[in-house]
Design a protein that fits this description.
This protein is mostly helical and 314 residues long. The chain contains twelve helices and no strands. The protein has two domains: 51 residues, no CATH class; 237 residues, MetI-like fold (Orthogonal Bundle). The mean pLDDT is 87.
C-alpha cells in the first residue's frame, strides 16, 4: 500500500461529517430568528385552521368549551344543513351581490383615479394621493361615524342637501333596497385608495418612450389608454381584481358596524352570519362549516379569475 494512503482515506472520510457539523452550526442563528415566527404561525394560524376543520364535523358549542373532546361527531351534517338554511342562502346571495357590484366599481374607480393623478395635477398630486388613501388607514369606527352622518335620513348631509331643493331623503340604511348599495358605496370609498396606489405603481412602470411613440403616431388620449395603458396594466389589474374580490367575499366590518345585517337580513353577509352563529348563538361547529364553505368559494372564484384574466395578459 502506498505510504500515507490510509491517512488520506481517513481524512476524506471525516471531511463530510465535519462539513455537516459546520453547516449545522451556521444554521443555528437562522433557526433562532425563525423560531418566534414559526411559534406564532403554529399557534395562531396552523392550529386554529386544523381545529376549525375538525370542529366543522362536530356539534361543538358553548357546552364543549371546557371539554372540547366532549363534542359529538356529526359527519357532514353541518354542511348539509347549510344549504337548507334560508339565512345562510340569503347571506350567500348578499355576499355575491356585494362582490358583483363592488369589485368592478373599486377596480374601475381606482384605475380612473390613478390615470388622472398620473397625468398630472401639479403640486397637488401628493395631496390627492393622501386624500384617496386616507380611508384605507382610517378606523372603521371613524368611517362609520362619517357615513352615518352622510346617510342619516333626519340630520344627515344628503338629507340636508335634499331639503335645500325641496326633496325628501330616503332612509338609506333602513331600506331593504338601498341598504346594501349604500354599504357598497362605502366599501368602494374605503378600498379605492389601495387600488389607486397599485395602479399608480403600474402606470409609472410604463416606459415614457412607448407613450411618446403613440402620440407621434397620432394616438389620442382614449386610443393611448385603450391600446397602451390597459394592455400593459393587465398584470396589475389581475392582482387588484383578485385581491379586491377576496376582500369583498370576506366582507364583515361594513355591515357589522353600520346595519348589523339588517334590515330583515338585507345586508347579512356570510362572514357576519358566521360571526353570529359562532359568537352569538354559540353554534361553533356550524360556524366552522360555514367558514370552510366560504373558503371553498373564495378558492374557486380566485382560481377562475386567475384562469380567465391570465389568458388575457398573455
Amino acid at each position: 500500500m502506498r505510504p500515507g494512503a490510509g491517512a488520506g482515506a481517513g481524512s476524506h472520510g471525516t471531511r463530510g461529517p465535519r462539513r455537516r457539523d459546520r453547516l449545522s452550526v451556521q444554521n443555528v442563528p437562522g433557526w433562532l430568528f425563525s423560531t418566534p415566527f414559526l411559534v406564532l404561525f403554529l399557534t395562531f394560524m396552523a392550529v386554529p385552521i386544523v381545529a376549525t376543520f375538525v370542529m366543522s364535523f362536530t356539534d361543538f358549542g358553548l357546552r364543549n368549551v371546557a371539554d372540547p373532546f366532549s363534542a359529538e361527531f356529526t359527519g357532514v351534517q353541518n354542511y348539509a344543513e347549510l344549504f337548507g338554511d334560508e339565512r345562510f342562502l340569503t347571506a350567500l346571495f348578499n355576499t355575491t351581490y356585494f362582490v358583483v357590484l363592488g369589485v368592478p366599481l373599486t377596480v374601475g374607480a381606482g384605475l380612473l383615479a390613478a390615470v388622472l393623478l398620473n397625468r398630472g395635477v401639479g403640486r397637488l398630486r401628493t395631496v390627492f394621493r393622501v386624500g384617496f388613501y386616507a380611508p384605507v388607514v382610517t378606523s372603521i369606527v371613524a368611517v362609520a361615524v362619517v357615513w352615518r352622518f352622510v346617510l342619516d335620513p333626519a340630520d344627515g348631509l344628503i338629507s340636508g342637501l335634499a331639503a335645500e331643493v325641496g326633496l325628501t331623503s330616503p332612509d338609506f340604511l333602513g331600506s331593504k333596497v338601498l341598504a346594501m348599495p349604500s354599504l357598497i358605496v362605502m366599501a368602494v370609498w374605503r378600498n379605492l385608495g389601495t387600488a389607486m396606489v397599485l395602479f399608480l405603481a403600474g402606470l409609472q412602470g410604463i416606459p415614457a418612450e412607448v407613450r411618446e411613440a403613440a402620440r407621434l403616431d397620432g394616438a389620442g388620449i382614449w386610443q393611448e389608454f385603450r391600446s397602451i395603458t390597459v394592455p400593459l396594466l393587465r398584470p396589475t389589474m389581475l392582482y387588484v381584481s383578485v385581491m379586491t374580490t377576496i376582500g369583498f367575499l370576506n366582507v364583515f366590518e361594513e355591515p357589522f358596524v353600520m346595519t348589523e345585517g339588517g334590515p330583515d337580513n338585507a345586508t347579512l353577509t356570510v362572514s357576519l352570519d358566521m360571526y353570529d352563529q359562532g359568537f352569538k348563538f354559540f353554534h361553533m361547529g356550524y360556524a366552522s362549516a360555514m367558514a370552510y364553505v366560504l373558503f371553498t368559494v373564495i378558492l374557486a372564484v380566485t382560481l377562475l379569475q386567475l384562469r380567465l384574466l391570465k389568458d388575457k395578459t398573455k
